[in-house]
């Protein structure tokens, strides 16, 4: 039974879209359309899912099942993370906890002032907030601006504390300085070139009602979406984590939270001895250490802040390269967290056949050769596509055989569609991996071997086409393609630069695994 597309109301749960419950021979099964799976339900899970065909609160579910509310909450959370239930926003806590907001800043007087004014307008009890600005030895008018704002804040029921470094120490140390001075149990990090939405804290703080949660991150969008690069950054920046609630995990798909919009328990910061003294990637390092220590982190696509991205071409390329350069430093600190390229046999064979077939056909079409011999060449180029179709049919029947152990018949078209979607998704991820790290290399090779250029176009075309449909950017596909290619080239250059800087070459060589 499918659900509506709108989100459930606050505090409510509802059956996830694409999930069906089937009762047969006294047992209950749940069938998920994508990824295709059939799960045998225990009686409690079956009862909860059936009740959640319509939106329900934990109180309503507890009343209907006779279970304690806290046990219902635990069950519903587990079903949400398994993709069977969809949860609405959390209800606010009985009393709002106090929060220390830490903002590191260096020579961003105008941006910092704009950021602070957005915090003065937060929809959160002012008596429960303190704002800590860490001035990392700025040489512009940051000091005078903060003095003026401090006088203004003194007339309100708000707290603004300024800590100044006499020498520049970097953003990681600045965040530590702010956390050291924080007097409250929750610390919220915000960058000085960001603007907080009024509901920023009100939408994220309720997550900490779950005592297991160590940190939470909210959504980051672009402050300026009128420029080409601003519109691109809005949904393609490494700070944008999407519109789906996710649990952060070292195994992915989401492995870190950006510190530009991160809330954490202060005791967690103390336990991990704060952020590392890194110029880039300090938030990734912090998250990996937290996850390794057993801490739990969630991403919630609410609590929006707006980031003022650099939207000139030079600044865009530099910041992309700078982010990428952190890969080498992170590998040195976390040797086990290397990049992995998965090559599962079925999916890899299908993807290679599709890409290889498209490459061969494009080469022949490009040369416009249609004589008898070349017609044979075209037929030979079509062979990989035929092999891909055969692999797709093989995979479909293989899944049908696995499904026969369940007392339910799933139609061939459903299994075929799910198999095709899974294979195509892998084809995208393989193309994304190759284009992200090898675009410049393939461009260089194509000067000596021109056919390689066509292969590169196919790989980039797959990625750009899928992302354009998936992300729906506010620009035409040509401009999006240009931005995406510049992004990949800058990122690859940054990875190489970081490898040279740190004398660590592992980021360029992935670990290849046949299975996850």
Textual characterization of the structure:
By secondary structure, this protein is of the alpha/beta class. It has helices at 43-51, 58-65, 69-81, 109-120, 142-153, 171-181, 200-204, 228-236, 266-271, 282-292, 313-333, 345-367, 372-403, 412-448, 451-471, 477-502; strands spanning 12-15, 19-24, 27-32, 37-41, 56-57, 85-87, 99-105, 129-135, 160-164, 186-190, 194-196, 213-217, 220-222, 246-247, 261-265, 296-299, 305-307, 340-342, 511-513. The strands form five sheets. An eight-stranded mixed β-sheet has the order 9-8-7-10-15-12-16-14, with helices on both faces. Helix 5 (142-153) links the parallel strand 8 (129-135) and strand 9. Helix 4 (109-120) runs parallel beside helix 5 and helix 12 packs across helix 15.
